[in-house]
Amino acid sequence: MADEMVRQAQVFINRTYSSRIGMTVEENGQTSWNTMYALTRALQYELGITSLSNSFGPTTLAAIAEKYGKIDASNVPSADFCRILQSALYCKGYDGSAIDGTYNARVQQSVTQLNANMGLSVVYPGSALWPKVLKGLFNMDAYVTVNGGSSAVRSVQQWLNGQYVLRKDFYVIPCDGHHSRDVAKSMLFGVQYEIGMADGVANGVFGPVPSRA
Fold it and tell me: What are the tens digits of pLDDT across the range 60-82?
């Protein structure tokens, strides 16, 4: 089903960034990987990254952390940067306000809800977007129960995020109530952290090192 605000986000992407990011998106009001890729590239452009990519990878994550630490109403870099965030919120099913370039109360409320849905309210209280939360915002993962997902599984997913998101190699996982390879890998990370494996050593793989510990 088409969403008018997602369509407006797609219009914004095409009008503002198509020549800058080397791609356009269909203005159909439906969230897709192509739309998220375009938003990721637009964000990278605003961060000053010259080699744009569909992937929200280490370079993008590091650029946000080094330049801003976190994004909130006090330091959002520009109106277009904020419009990218507002567009991403709509594509994830949250209220992004009027896509007007202001990190206003509606945007702040949505970010607070996003953090809560990810299970990060204790770690990241308030309405700031931290780098790993931003990474989770710019993909197709869901942070609410979808398609008959289990509330019990979702609770586990949220707990894992809240417990380990501050570890270097742990990234926000979906909280959709469905078990997946990402969830299984995150559990292995948790086991490795709990037996004392350091950041950079823990890898989410059940291999020789964790089996000996």
Answer: 999 999 999 999 999 999 999 99
Q: How many domains does the chain have?
A: 2
Residues 132 and 171 in one domain: no
Instruction: Check if the beta carbon of residue 22 is closer than 8 Å to that of residue 52.
Output: yes
Least Cα distance to 63 among 80, 51, 79 occurs for 51
Whether residue 143 is contained in a domain is answered as no
Model-level pTM?
0.93
Residue 198 φ/ψ region, left for φ over 0, alpha for ψ in the -120 to 50 degree band, beta for the rest: beta
Token pair 């009001």 is found at 29
Q: Is 142 a domain residue?
A: no
Domain boundary (112, 137, 162) is at: 137
- Residues 184-195 have pLDDT tens digits of 999 999 999 999
Nearest Cα neighbor of 31 from 139, 176, 108 is 139
Task: Report residue 85 as tokens.
Answer: 């965030």
